Amino acid sequence: MQDITTNLEMEAGKVGLRVSANKTKLRQVGEVEVLQPITVGGQNVDDVDRFTHLGSILACDGDAEADVNCRIGKAPSVFQRMRSIWSSSVISTDTKMWLYKAL
After folding, report:
1. Do 48 and 27 form a contact (C-beta atoms < 8 A)?
2. d(CA 60, CA 81)
3. What pLDDT band is residue 12 in, cutting at 50, 70 and 90?
4. 46, 37 in Cβ contact below 8 A?
5. Kind and range of the H or E element at 51?
6. What's the domain count of the chain?
7. pLDDT tens digits for range 43-94
């Protein structure tokens, strides 16, 4: 895994990109443990059980409960911020229903 990470850093550097050690996380799946730490730019990568990627909480055990609860928790604030849309007389009911179903 360290070789793959090092190669990624080298290839990214060729086009002016940099791999961030602070944003990089290691998530182990299965029974085999990584014995030596993986490094990016000389810094150890955090070994985590769960992390957030593109707004979803990913857990190494496949548990989706935390992600579902997080999404349910975000819904009321989204609908509250859209109050002006829901109460608008300019936007048709069909458009509002389409938006509601999409959300």
Report:
1. yes
2. 33
3. very high
4. no
5. strand 50-53
6. 2
7. 888 887 777 778 778 777 777 887 888 888 888 888 888 889 889 999 999 9
CB-CB contact of 49 with 62 (8 Å): no
CA–CA gap between residue 35 and residue 46 (Å, rounded): 13
- Residue 93: what residue type? T
Evaluate whether residue 55 is within a structural domain: no
CB 51 within 8 A of CB 27: yes
Cα–Cα distances (Å) from 9 to 18, 51, 64, 83, 100, in that order, read 7, 21, 31, 45, 43
**Three-state SS at 42:** coil
60 occurs within a structural domain: no
Give pLDDT, residue 11: 94
Residue 12 lies in a domain: yes
**Three-class secondary structure of residue 70 per DSSP:** helix
